[in-house]
Amino acid sequence: MVQPSVLDSFFQKTEGLARGIGFFARFLFSHPESTQGLRFYKEPEAMPSLDEFQRRVTSLLQLHALKDDLGRLVTHPVGLDAGAQKAWICFHDEVEEFIGGDREYSTIKDVASKAAENAARLACCLHVFTKYGGPFGDIEHSTMDSACSLMRWYLDEAVRFGRKSEMTEDLRNAELLEGWLVEKHKEAIRQKRETLITVNTIRQKGPNALRGGKRIDDALSLLQDHGRLRVTQSPGSKTRFVTVAPPVIIEWS
């Protein structure tokens, strides 16, 4: 696990090299949005699936590695049944189609080019995780389907992360401020308060990374230019209010 700021900094400074040597394509990235400010206390719930997962991991870690008379690891090649092979080929061709032109994966060609290969690896992991200790057999259609679905999620994460890493500092500041404004809007709705927020409040209580200098004003201007919010001022008053556009609220839901 790497802190988002460290990963962002790495790719901003070395993205050309990192992409060139295949670094980006060799990992399955996830870059979830922060839930800070929304992690309200809830009574712990029973998690039988997690308990079963932990038991299975423990049993696998306790197994002894099989070796031959020369001390070499004994491996167990795993194949695909006919259904799994067909599902894998469909996924391979689906991703290949989305790489071309300006389609979904055109900005992450390096990652997408290895997607089918990684889906096969994921299918093998899922298969062995459930079958180890008994007859291996071939990977089944349902297992390959699950692996391909998981790989689609990782591809979407790669697209989102790649888009974020390509942002200019101004765009990143604007997105940070927009997220903060949306959360304040939702908080006001929950507490049945006025949803308007003043520019001065943003300067005093907004994201720490934007305080000082012109970053908040620049971010507000950029968001207003793109119709993401509106800054208004009452006649005879110097106080400016910020209203986030309703479609933007929905986007962040």
Automatic annotation (TrEMBL):
<protein>
    <recommendedName>
        <fullName>DUF3987 domain-containing protein</fullName>
    </recommendedName>
</protein>
<dbReference type="InterPro" id="IPR025048">
    <property type="entry name" value="DUF3987"/>
</dbReference>
<dbReference type="Pfam" id="PF13148">
    <property type="entry name" value="DUF3987"/>
</dbReference>
